[in-house]
User: Fold these one by one.
Assistant:
Number 1:
Amino acid sequence: MTFARRLGVVPSALVLLAAMAAAFAPALFSAADPLRGDLTERLLPPGAAHLFGTDELGRDVFARVVHGSAPSLQAAVIAVGIAVLAGSTIGLVAGTARGWLDDLVMRGVEVLLAVPSFLLILVIVAVLGPGTREVAVAVGVSAAAVFSRIMRAEVIRVRGSGYVEAAAVCGTGRPTVLLTHVLPNAAGPLTALATLELGNAILTVAAVSFLGFGAPPPAPEWGSLIAAGRPFLASAWWLTTVPGLVIVAVVLAVNHLGHVLRTRSERR
Amino acid sequence: MTPLLAVRGLTVRYGPSGRGRPAVDRADLTVEAGQIVAVVGESGSGKSTLAHALAGLLPDTARVTGGGVTFGGERVDGLRERAWRRLRGRRIAFVPQDPGTALNPLMTVRAQLAEALRLTGIPRPGEAAFEDALGRVGIPDPAAVLDRHPHQLSGGFRQRVLLGMALAGRPALLIADEPTSALDTTVQKTVLDLIQKVAARDGTSILLITHDLGVAADRADRVAVMSEGRVVEEGPAGRVLCSPEAAYTRLLLDSAPRPLTGPAPTVGDPLLAVHDLRKVYPGGTVAVEGASFTLDRAGTLGLVGASGSGKSTIARMITGLVEPTGGSVLLDGAPVGAGRVQFVAQNPYASLDPLMSVGRIIAEPLRALRAGTRAERRERVRRLLEDVALPSEVVRRRPSALSGGQRQRVAIARALAPSPDLIVLDEPVSALDAVTQAQILALLRRLQDKHGMAYLLISHDLAVVAAAAGRLAVMRDGRIIESGPTAGVLAGPEAPFTRELLAAVPGGPPVGRTSA
Amino acid sequence: MTRFVARRLTQAVAVVLTAYTLTFAAFNVLPADPVRIMMGPENGGDEARVAALRAEYGLDRPAVERYLDGLLDTLRGDFGTSFQTGRNVGATIAEAAPRTLALAGGALLVALPLGFLIAWSAAHTRHMWLRRLLGALPGLSLSVPTFWLGLVLLQAFSFGLPLFPARAEDGLAGLVLPAVTLAVPSSAFVAQVLLERLTVEMRQPYVDTARAKGASRARAVTAHALRNAAMPALTMIALLAGWLVSGSVVVETVFARNGLGRLIESAVTTRDLPMLQGLVVVATAVVTLLTLAVDMAHPLVDPRLRERAA
């Protein structure tokens, strides 16, 4: 029951569209250079010339947020992609095979779920080293377990449904049943979950980057951008507050769409 | 004298601002003291919403937008929650649908009954109060029930406990929402007998909500027929059921299943031979034991029994969904070949893939058998839709756009597609309303005359089987206890269980105009 | 029942040992070896130094031997020596744990009643607008980055209004802001799970039965629906614990508190593999034990499960 649902998906879709556009064509939004600043314009509060203000090196914060959207969103999208692909393959195999293979795979998934997810992500980052791509892989792997569980449950649900039974009586072969009934019907809930997970992934990627395990300095990333503003908490509030608000807006939009998708897939 | 309950022009709407289509539309209804009034209607007719409105238990999304209700001479619609609480339990009692979920699964019968007694003004109920409350609903040994949890009781006992709680405060009015529709026929009869006895003994008025005209005819003094939110007819039970005035009541009456008339089928050419069939599930549960029967070509065999009697397991073994533990299923003396036996399941909402178009669903067996070219299959689907009397434009629709009856027609068309010799119908109409039920049964008869396949018709409802099957087999606890021509079994049942089953059919046993 | 307990206990031990094995494999078998991970990609070329470090930490022994030794030590509760500080891993963890427990405890003190209150009120109210509003709160809180929330609170209540210290290590005043930061998402999590279950239970006919008896709406929610919703919601407690561990990393970094979270962060920064491995095993054990406890409690509450377990 989201209050905002009554507004429809339009505002959320617009926010998401803007974020995507910023990721693909940052120049559309800001002509300023995110890496080079004007030292005469240090620590200026938000104003007409600098929408989000400037940082300690005189760099335009708006330009840095816009240019930071590409690596931040990319990492989240790659992470969800990995989670969906790996997780649903594992879930599909376990749900279709059943028996000992199912047991084995699900025990493994249980272990992954028992490790606190953020700790798991950091351990993987420790092994792979810091970097946007490495963080994406780590977040993806840690989310895969959830997807494999959902996929397995969906496969088992659909396989026990009346229409799969009907297909069996018709003489439809098992591979065909899998392709025509099981996969399409499992796709709906999985898509909804993937969208909700995208919001999560954006937050997690930002948190890892905040801790300093993302892309190395001058490159702007949403998390590291906020971390860089920490020394100026008392004097320049906009360095931390404004990029954070951007993250909140994007995550809210993604979660809203995810909830709409989930309601839709449940209503069927 | 003012009536106990008077409903005048009551309108209930759903939706945030109460602007939706009315679920109850200007309904009028009167219940006098000591009367049993039945409200009859199909699902979606608004009868359940009406019942909830009269108990002040409408969901938060619904509200009364017009008319009024007086109870014992006082207006009760629009009462505040606090005032309702003084009425509920003490003056107005309510028993919800489905005894399976109407009791709190985590609390013992004692705790739930104690709550009811406390709320009706007995602060510290003693053993005697418990025994009295359960004794009144025919539970002879309350001690055996009190410390059990709901899941340890049978459906009939759960319903008795619910009634016992409802009647604990000696209410003037008992509203029972489909109190027996989830129970087997014989249990249904004992529960209805009990309700009737309570009304006669204590002078409690009863508002009985039911979809079953037979139940209304047997039990009620007055009957109100609801359709699309409106009370289309109201009057003394005898008058409404014998000389109905509203067209809808007539349609409902005509839809009640009637036994087949005409000579008993002669023994013909056997198609299906089931011999000594047995199914033991892992864990040792014996579902079916030593079931043997034959089914003639183009004949119909009805298989009747209570839930859990093993009839569905037989259906699943014949269709190959379940592997038998022992025994044989032979079609024309050979194991069942691909496409020769088809299946129509009980729930038309679950048996159609929600993402597939109707055309693809019907063509599924043809694709599985690799029968014909794409164009030929499309032509075959078109003819099948004609056969089941669905308009050709549904071909592109998804199941969610169809009604329950239309969905079941699609399932039947799919079963017909490979021109099978036998169609197994597992409770094909039990999820459907009376009018749709009659239409589907008529369709099945027509299709059999046209295409000449045999039916194995499985149902818990003796009336449905009697209306469609020439031969009949009765199952109990995994065994077939009686079989023979339908007319013969109905006229002279041999097994005591069959007699019990016959006596419990609401509206009287389906015997009669047979020429046997 | 004893057999049920024994089986679940064995499973729990197996989960923890598998977690140990997986981290060992990740550090020793997969991409490179521990020394190269430790030195980082930027200075991996110095072969002499690699060999020296390898000998120093006993990493020149075969992996199988080290795995079995480590496994036995882990079973005995000995997680080895930190690469970074040279101190015992178990002792370091034990030293840091109380501060994180205080943080998590403080957060739960706020989060549990708050989450409970939100879910209960949303289920109890008859006003659809209020229910929607309350139902939307958790989703809103879960869309806020925790580290950012901490910074905003610092800005407002340490620098803006100097009510709380910005980096006080001990004492109650220093605990307030971090605990509140961690409590916001935790309460949202609790409210979300509980409300979802409550919404399902409130639609069950037994709630109608209770109200038909004359029970008030509050009683129907509390004595009936909540009771049935509690157990499925409790299953989330293990997840919540894992969540608190994850959240403490960020919150302790923001508020410069030394606890398990900081330990995790610095172990990743310095690639202190024995420390990380010890932390993974301890955290997994905690989550697994909590899961186990909830599973054990289940049949006590639900009579239907009691029969199945017997």
Note: Chain C has a mean pLDDT of 86.
Number 2:
Amino acid sequence: MLRGFPIRTQALKWSLVNLLLVGAFLLVAMFGRGSTAEAAPLGNLRIRAIPAFARKYGLPCSACHTAWPELNNFGIVFRDNGYQLGNERDSPIWQNPSYFPITFRITPNWHRESTNNLAIDSVPGGGTGSTLVSGKVQQNGFDLSGMDLWSAGTLYKNISFQLLPSSDNTAAWHFESAWVRIDNIKNSSWLNIKAGKFEMDNLISEKRFLFLSGNGGLYQIYHYDVPGSSNDFGYGDNQLGVELAGHSKNSYTRYSVAVLSSNDGNVGFTSGSGLPSNRGYDVNLSFSQAFNGGTLGLQRVGAFAFVGQRPTYYETSSSGGAPVQLVGLGNKTFYRIGVSGDFFLKKLEILPLFMYGHDNAYLGAGVPSNTALPAGAQAPAFVGGFLESHYYVSPQLVFFGRFEKINVAQQAFVNLGFPSDYGNVTAYSVGYRWYPIMFSRAGLAWHNEYSIVRSNGFLPLSGNGAGLQVFNLANPVWSSSIMAGFDFDF
Amino acid sequence: MTRKKILALSALGMALLVVDPQFALAQESHVGKLSGHAAEGKQLYRRYCIGCHGPDGDSNGENAPWIDPKPRDFTAATFKCRSTPTGTLPTDEDLDHAIQRGFVTTNMPSWNPLTPQQRADLVAYVKTFSPRWKTEKPGTPINIPQETPATIESILHGRELFQKMECWKCHGPAGHGDGPSAATLTDSKDNPIRPYNFSTGSRFKCGETNQDLYRIFMTGVDGTPMPSFADAIQPKDAWDLVHFLRTLQALQTQEAALWKKYAADHATEIKPIGPDAGGQ
């Protein structure tokens, strides 16, 4: 299908460039040093794209995506309009009966994970004479990502849906999202109601970003809580609830109001820790406005605010012996506020985000609110964000990079005994994606990425080093990832 | 350097200029105050349009075999929706409006989410596919006079014209696109084509206002059997026809309300449209 592509020679040129870059990545990986031990696998990939829509409408991936899975404004309008183009051919009654809007996605890959400042045995096996020493845990090899099995589309005109069973790389499944949306209520694009489990209306979506590596495959600030806090909230996690949203016809102006269960999207009245959730509700507000930037492209700015509550103790029953937690009680509040943007300078896209987070002191100290706060406990707060950029050489090649920084503005305890920068995070990610094919039936990307994170005194949010102890809390933990793989969906 | 060498190099340079694809990318468009550039439009075309219209603009994109109606063939530079007389090239604004509006009931969506500059760039690039844009200028947009009042007399006269000008042969007596000739119609590329069914949808491919409908009569829909009536009817008659056609749509329009009331009061007087009718 590449026949007659006007830039065939350019594609060849970029193939050679790509080859060189791949070689460079592999060389760096092979000559990296460090002791080998268990390392966290590549996380469950979070990014989404739906070639089922491309098949339905005959549009190439690039029509809706700057570089899939990130949406461009045409894709945003399509999504906001309930997965409808508005050409009187959106309803399923117009589709061939054999058409089924489903997408498979997985990424066979090679990756290397390395994390230092971990407490490891001085003698492998931990035998006689072994002590805990500071060491680096490094692992590399071929691997699989998680898998998405995504279906989305229209049940009828102005009734859309999404169902996304997703697995980790051991094929342990969960429902990443499942919702129904009533679109264009009273023929107004300003009134749309969605119910179920869904991604909050982030201007910068973590579910659709371009990063895949272990440490780069998440926005640190979307999952950050000050170390020691009992809060399990992650702004990037899909949530359970109902959302009222609206947009102008071209989606330049957008808003959303969501009322969500206070359990970070976990099902069965449980929280992320497996303990029962409370009976409370959280609220998320978001607004964004786009401006026509002339020859530079579309410019968009937005703001968001999330107010939530989490339990600090539980109603219990000891009828069976040991106390069993029944319902979360003693709710204490927290909030996240921020601003973000999406700016284009022709082929260069810049995505800045700034967030401030604040937790109640009881959440920060992790103690029940029906007891007194420990001495020195105070409400923890953090401030941070990221600056991400993409350079689109063509619809089939994109380079990307990101710098992230989170500073603890107020520790959970006065005079904790740690350095003042305990809990701070600094992260860098760079990479590129090359799409050798770009048509309306499937998507394939060759993906190379390097990421490194410095977490002061605690384990990285990527999960690298999970289950181990940080050897020296006064020192930073450095964790890096190198990843190369074929990212495909069909 | 000898004079011969200078001439030879000059000739070579001219030849390269002519055959160089970049030369075509110097094409511009002018939409309002915006200037579109084909070089920018080429990237956008590749991103958004290539799947249907094809890399060479000849409607042979990878999806074309499965699309009905077929994508536009830009190499022919024949466009349905124009403000210019039949047979002439459209204006840049016409092409921009088509991209912005999309074509209802086809695979061509509205590209309104693109910025005005992006659409202008696309227009410039679309104009590189046909040599007509190098040798011809766009036609002069037709004048659309002020609309006449939508009265029952206007509607009834429009109905007479619908019969007299044999619109029903293609569009059907009730405007359902099922006239006796409908099944035999083909477009300029010999693909089967269906006449517009007025009873479905609220929009026409070339717009949705009364002015848009008037324009369609007067410019025709090039590349289809729908001719221009610019030389056949007067502006007032054209407005009468517009008012009648509005009664065929499943819409709550002023014309539909007038016709509904008239039809209820004069049911026995209304003659059917078709081969045996004389008009009203």
Note: The first strand of chain A starts at residue 65 and ends at 67.
